[in-house]
């Protein structure tokens, strides 16, 4: 296996040159500077590449095992997780009040990328714990916070999110899990949950389940869902784990990828009922979930970047070493990176990864701003909410193409499991499904993020992008010319698509949603091009190889990705109706 | 698991309405008519869906096993293969002289699609045998034909193709396997071959290896490679298998997919040397391989169609049955096929599959014509040679997208192996790699198929497509208008790309090859649209639901696939250089 190289240089470029993190921090009132972020990232990079990454292939071959309700994680996971918590990585972004380090979103993004790159499977455990912490911070009462937060922030206990049931997947309105209020104010929870990531494992002494369920008199649909804390072990008055709660893991799934991450079927209340504690108020569970969802979806988008970069690095290492054939126009046999198509695949990966990483950092800056007292926080919140489905959808869909190409670079060896490229390809496949499929993201982008404000946030962003087009167009560098031309036409295409989606809201709602996924791809394509514009502007202040690398990557993105924007807009506007009107009797012919 | 439905209705439409098979047969002097082809296809469909398809999932979980040089195939494979041979399916296309049925390429295409759809893994065994038969028919002397052909045609013995070595993958010039001529005219073969499909198994009493190797005085490179027959068991004078030859299977690979197909490492001549017999003349091995290669590449292209259709049918069955959520614009909760994005994915699969199948039938007609005494055989041969890399490359690349979407339709269940969708996705992954990667196909398309004749075959085909654009444009049906407009602009884009590729041959050879894969995609996109034009012309002579289904599928293809042609042409022309000029020092940053 190749070695994982944390993207420290690109991070320094993004924070120092492209986005001016120091100014951002000042603006948000964050007590942190670029040097500090990079120093933290360097340490995280070491832990990721030296401790986590070496476990990843083994956890694929020797995944989590279930026996008699007990789950044993892959060899090395327990030690690595203990080290992870000991070094304080788990609590990086959480309030110091609960033992965290109170660092901002940009820092969290920088280090989270590395955990996921080193191992999607391993990093899912802290990622789900983060979700549980966010839920309690958002809506938990003081008693819940007091009992659970410090342990979750330190990582001594881990958290899970229990949403899905066999008949309630994308449609949470169908949740059937029951919650009965007891005299002491607690609830008895009964029901089955499926697809519960790290629902059971041996990494921590307690597992805190966040569970969606209905009280008996709750309204039907999404307005009757409440959120509960259900610990695996009840918590003693002194804060230590006590007796076992009535919840157990019935089995774990046999999956295409992320074998190191146990995906559990959870049974709540096979006996008298699992004891649960209401988070916030009854019937507001979905609302709390939505608050956390931005965070969770952002994290999954980041996983798309991470697995893409890891797969790219793996393929690149092979391309630099494997000798095969004489490339066209060259005199001698060389390494395969000399072949034009191998270079096309590699720069295709690299240029998309650079756009993805820049977008992740940009959105995390909007998160920081939105949570700050800065004047621009309202605008930043709207922009973050617009871009989260784009980041989740586009980064994870891109990850499919990139991990595919990474296999392709290996030729026949790519199909052999021992090579390792296939694992990234298989692992990545979950990313467009969980935390809301791409269609769910796309529908959110159409309905809540475009139509609801009549395109206000969308047009504001397009305006900002066009301003950068103008600046770039005034620069004589060939890459600046190429990119600004393509980005201008892409912005036009996007604007026309936004207009059409708003105009057709009433007249052709189903056709609009028939184009929602292409609409998401169009957004990703355009903001990806914009990120290259920002990168190129920063690089134009440099010269030599540094400028050349950024300029070629930007030119590549313009000619291979941005170029597709007008066709995507046409597909959105013309493509929705044929599938909708296709005769139902004619599918299987 | 869903049931496999052979595409009999679409086949009847293609042969009866779109392509007029009866006239084609008459033209080629083939003694066969549409009714006969459909009757054969119906029988093949039964065998595929009732005997082979039910073994496919089991052979994934319980793949071929190696122990001490012996390979045991998956449960049920032996019986199914025996039935396959007994029913005469193995020899369908081969001369009656050797016990075959002498049927034409169109028939072979129709039934081969079904074998591959039922199980890529199972069908690889007869597919490789076909390759060995073609090699012997092409270049074998009478003695070789006499000894081997009847047994291979019946399927009692199977064949393999031994090309790849650890240092000779895409680059066969690097083949190192040795062949020493003996006094009796036979050769002693020494060397290692890898990635040998069905190199060892228990389905047949003998395995006939076709092996590329070099004689001691052979020229370097591809002009010094010879082709040998190396039987697993020597053949007695009475034609029965005799003593064991010096060849054995050292191991089989642990692969991402097609677990039912053993992929062998073969050792030739660990002792005194494996006995081999020269096929044709020394040093002409690669030439013979190239003759067969059209056949083999066509077959792999067909596998792309097959696995796509099987995955589509599997997803469709789920979409028609799974209830989840209320679709936008609808009053009640329904099956997920009511959701606009699910319909988009399903019609996206269906419309591409229809284009792929039509193209496979069209190219097989060109093969029939090329092998006939018809006046148009020269033109047909050129067209077939132009289209084979397109068929191999575009159908197999499309299969990646389609099997991906088929997983997506299942949502979370798609990631669970028991669902079965993931197997198609994993199995399909080999198709863009073996028998020449997509880049190898694309380079062939650029060099041998476009530049060598200065675009003659390409422009002739574009001319034919434009003639259909004209006919379609004269029809007032909205789908005819939409499709003819998009196809006209796609043909323009393709023509401009062909021109650029010819013009830039000398001035920018590396940039041309940097765009070779997009060039292949452009060809697939345009000929796929052309196939829809042919289908739509035929359907316009019908009415009601039959026309509606074809028209909506064509409209979908126009708005979602053909629409991308102009951008692909731009990528080809502008996109090659950035990857080539990217500074080599800057990859890992």
How would you describe this protein?
The structure is a homodimer of 589-residue chains. Chain A is an alpha+beta fold and 589 residues long. In chain A, 57% of the residues lie in helices and 12% in strands. Chain A is built from 18 helices and 14 strands. In chain A, the strands form four sheets. In chain A, strands 3, 4, 5, 6, 7, 10, 11 and 12 form an eight-stranded mixed beta sheet that branches. The radius of gyration of chain A is 24 Å and the shape is globular. At the A-B interface, strand 13, helix 9, helix 10, helix 11 and helix 12 of A face strand 13, helix 9, helix 10, helix 11 and helix 12 of B.
Shape of chain A: globular
Number of E strands of chain A: 14
Stretches of chain A where pLDDT falls below 50 for ≥5 residues? none
Strand content of chain A: 5-15%
C-alpha end-to-end distance of chain A: 46 Å
CA-atom Rg of chain A in angstroms:
24 Å
Counting copies of identical and different chains, the oligomeric state is homodimer
Helix content of chain A: 55-70%
Q: From the helix content, strand content and strand pairing of chain A, which structural class follows?
A: alpha+beta
What is the tally of helical segments of chain A? 18
Biggest interface pair, residues each? A-B, 106 and 106 residues
Q: Major sheet of chain A: size, sense and barrel closure?
A: 8 strands, mixed
Q: Compute the average pLDDT of chain A.
A: 97
């Amino acid at each position: 296996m190749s070695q994982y190289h944390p993207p420290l240089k690109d991070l320094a470029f993004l924070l120092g040159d492209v986005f001016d993190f120091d100014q951002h921090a000042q603006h948000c009132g964050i007590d942190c500077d670029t040097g500090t972020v990079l120093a933290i990232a360097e340490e995280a990079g070491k832990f990721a590449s030296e401790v986590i990454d070496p476990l990843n292939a083994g956890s694929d071959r020797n995944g989590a095992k279930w026996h008699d309700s007990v789950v044993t994680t892959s060899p090395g996971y327990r030690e690595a997780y203990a080290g992870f918590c000991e070094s304080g990585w788990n609590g990086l972004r959480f309030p110091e009040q609960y033992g965290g380090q109170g660092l901002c979103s940009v820092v969290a993004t920088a280090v989270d990328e590395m955990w996921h790159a080193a191992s999607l499977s391993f990093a899912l455990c802290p990622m789900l714990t983060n979700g549980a912490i966010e839920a309690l911070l958002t809506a938990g009462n003081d008693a819940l916070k007091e009992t659970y937060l410090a342990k979750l922030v330190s990582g001594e206990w881990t958290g899970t999110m229990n949403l899905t049931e066999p008949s309630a997947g994308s449609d949470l309105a169908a949740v059937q899990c029951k919650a009965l209020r007891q005299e002491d104010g607690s609830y008895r929870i009964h029901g089955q949950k499926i697809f519960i990531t790290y629902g059971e494992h041996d990494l921590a002494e307690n597992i805190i389940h966040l569970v969606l369920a209905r009280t008996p008199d709750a309204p039907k649909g999404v307005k009757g869902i409440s959120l509960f804390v259900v610990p695996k072990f009840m918590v003693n008055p002194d804060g230590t784990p006590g007796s076992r709660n009535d919840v157990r893991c019935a089995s774990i799934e046999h999956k295409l990828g992320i074998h190191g991450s146990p995906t559990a079927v959870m049974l709540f209340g096979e006996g008298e009922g699992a004891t649960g504690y209401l988070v916030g108020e009854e019937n507001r569970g979905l609302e709390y979930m939505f608050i956390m969802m931005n965070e969770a979806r952002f994290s999954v988008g980041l996983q798309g970047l991470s697995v893409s970069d890891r797969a790219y690095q793996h393929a690149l290492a092979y391309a630099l070493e494997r000798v095969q054939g004489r490339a066209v126009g060259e005199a001698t046999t060389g390494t395969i990176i000399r072949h034009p198509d191998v270079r096309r695949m590699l720069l295709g990966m690299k240029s998309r990864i650079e756009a993805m990483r820049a977008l992740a950092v940009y959105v995390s800056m909007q998160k920081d701003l939105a949570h700050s007292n800065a004047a621009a926080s309202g605008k930043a919140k709207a922009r973050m909410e617009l871009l989260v489905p784009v980041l989740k959808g586009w980064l994870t869909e891109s990850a499919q193409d990139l991990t595919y190409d990474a296999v392709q670079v290996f030729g026949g060896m790519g199909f052999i499991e021992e090579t390792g490229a296939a694992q990234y390809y298989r692992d990545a496949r979950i990313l467009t499904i969980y935390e809301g499929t791409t269609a769910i993201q796309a529908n959110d982008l159409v309905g809540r993020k475009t139509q609801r404000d009549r395109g206000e946030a969308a047009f504001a962003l397009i305006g900002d992008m066009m301003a950068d087009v103008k600046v770039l167009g005034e620069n004589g560098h060939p890459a600046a010319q190429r990119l600004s031309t393509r980005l201008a036409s892409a912005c036009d295409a996007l604007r026309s698509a936004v207009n059409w989606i708003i105009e057709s809201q009433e007249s052709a709602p189903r056709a609009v949603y028939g184009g929602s996924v292409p609409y998401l791809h169009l957004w990703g394509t355009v903001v990806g091009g914009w990120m290259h514009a920002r990168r190129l502007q920063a690089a134009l202040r440099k010269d030599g190889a540094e400028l050349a690398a950024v300029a070629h990557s930007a030119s590549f993105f313009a000619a291979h990705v941005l170029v597709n924007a007008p066709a995507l807009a046409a597909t959105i506007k013309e493509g929705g109706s044929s599938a909708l009107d296709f005769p139902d009797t004619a599918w299987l012919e």
